[in-house]
Write a structure and sequence with these properties.
By secondary structure, this protein is of the alpha+beta class. It has five helices and six strands, in the order ααββαααββββ. The strands form two sheets. The protein has a four-stranded antiparallel sheet with strand order 3-4-5-6, with helices on one face.
Length: 201
């Protein structure tokens, strides 16, 4: 039956308070129970308070704020298109700008090609180079000392024409009798325009 008088309730409370003191075992059991309750609450309360402090909704781990003022520092106003800035500078072009063919460069190429294919029977390398020296750079002339003029075609086919022109160099090409092409690079040097490199293709 339910306790309906104050005297009955007091008696029950006295029994509950006095139970831990009746024996050492009762006291130890009471202490263990209180400690278990404290540990339970100490693990639950921080998790609840942490969830209450984290305001706003999260999407994929990112916090989304519910209100942003357009004039707030560090906040992009809604509706303003984003502008992507290029931070990497474009490297300068390595291509040398083209330029009109210098008349002197064309004249040197014509004369050099004509002297290059001119080699009568019995001509020596020194005699052949003597005709080329006025149109050849000082660096190229010694490298041609081992060339046998007898192995060079005897005539050109077509006209000498530029294929690539820059302010300080021009590349010329001309056909060779019997097949192949003579390619010459005429460079602007302190002594003037000179054939600085050539190739037979």
């Amino acid at each position: 039956m339910p306790i309906r008088t104050n005297r009955g309730r007091a008696a029950v409370y006295r029994r509950l308070w006095g139970w831990p003191l009746r024996s050492p075992n009762h006291l130890i059991a009471t202490i263990v129970g209180v400690a278990a309750v404290i540990m339970l609450f100490s693990s639950i309360i921080p998790a609840v308070t942490k969830g209450a402090k984290s305001g706003g909704t999260t999407t994929n781990g990112a916090v989304t704020r519910t209100s942003q003022l357009p004039g707030q520092v560090g906040v992009v106003p809604t509706g303003v298109p984003s502008i992507s800035l290029t931070t990497k500078a474009t490297p300068p072009s390595s291509t040398v700008p083209s330029a009109p063919v210098a008349p002197d460069a064309q004249l040197i190429a014509d004369n050099w090609a004509s002297a290059w294919v001119t080699h009568p029977a019995g001509i020596t390398n020194a005699q052949w180079l003597d005709k080329l020296k006025d149109y050849t750079s000082n660096e190229l002339l010694p490298r041609m000392a081992t060339v046998d003029p007898g192995n060079i075609p005897a005539a050109l086919e077509g006209k000498v024409g530029p294929t690539e022109s820059h302010e300080d160099s021009v590349v010329f090409e001309v056909g060779l009798k019997g097949g192949g092409t003579l390619v010459m690079t005429v460079a602007k040097l302190p002594e003037g325009w000179r054939v600085h490199k050539y190739d037979r293709k």
